[in-house]
Amino acid sequence: MKKQKCECGHSLQHIKAAREEKRQVIDIADVLVKVVEYLVEVKKCKCGKEHKATCEFEGRVQYGKKIKSLLTYLNVYQMLPNARIQELCRDLFGLSVGDGTIQSGSAICYNNLQETEEDIKQALIASPVIHVDETGMRCNGTTQWAHSCSNEKYTLYGIHQKRGNEGIDAMGIMQFYSGTCVHDRWASYDKYSNCVHALCNAHLLRDLKFMYEEEGKKWAGRLIELLQKANERKKEARISNHFSTRLRNQISGIVSRALRNEPKEKNVERKRGRRPKSKPIRLLEVFKNRLDDILLFLTRDDIPFDNNLAERDIRMVKLKQKISGCFRTEKGAQLFCRIRSYISTSRKQNQNIWNALTQALEGKPIKFAC
After folding, report:
1. Are residues 117 and 190 in the same domain?
2. Looking at the domain assignment, is residue 154 inside a domain?
3. Cβ(172)–Cβ(364) under 8 Å?
4. Which residues span the domain enclosing 140?
5. What pLDDT digit, counting tens, does each position of 199-256 carry?
6. N or C: which end of the chain has fewer CB within 10 A?
7. What's the rounded Cα separation, in Å, for the pair 198 and 201?
């Protein structure tokens, strides 16, 4: 103790401590890079032919699986661009890694996760509820489309040149799916009649908010109130048959009256053909024709009010482009989608991501629970 005297004037020098208080400091030990040298025997036969022992390491100098898993972790999970990964490796480990080294670990993971990707796909096909979404992705100077399909335990990403059914079918799920699909009203999903559809009410609320605030449609404000009230009841688990029936009747009444009063067509001049329907009419017809899909969340506990799960999953693709920019090749985008599917599924199932990637590099990826 530095202090040797109390304020009262008495000395503390020979007084025994009344108690001891612990203080713990958590810090990081110096990071050491370990180099292991392997000697490969080469034997020469009497005939002159040389025979070399087999070895899993082909190059004379190469990086191990822990480093490659870290590079993949930083590149695909943390989504750092190569330049920042290289800077981090120099600063922390004193290592100089090239673009090829960064990509080599990801390429190994990609190849080792083919069977895992198929397992995820089959798990989603068997799932009672899935969430789907899509977003544009810049790849080699062109716009392609990243598609996602997910539930609470699994995520699958894919990339395709098309946003519509051709791209959706390439995922290999919707054409075989017979459960309930939650989506944002993108017309291509409606072509799959083999499953039940649930619409994202968050998207509907945004459309209604525009109609109410920008177009001054009072019916839109009333529909906003009813949907928000239904969502609160859902959160509080206070949904009764009486409430559902009353809500349905209220919405139907508002929509019927609005359809009678709204202009049916856009006020634009066209030389040929019928004039297109106005935006208010198109939105009202969604409520008229698809009210069961809109209110499905009221009658089923496993159906959410919105499609936020899919939006959270697809947001990672947008974030990747913001941080690292576009993909240089389509192969690179495919690599990202497969590994990211594995990472997202691992995270949803409470797995350590670095350990999961190390296992994938070793050819022993995680077998996920159904």
Report:
1. yes
2. yes
3. no
4. 106-198+307-362
5. 999 999 999 999 999 999 999 999 999 999 999 999 998 889 999 999 999 999 999 9
6. N
7. 9
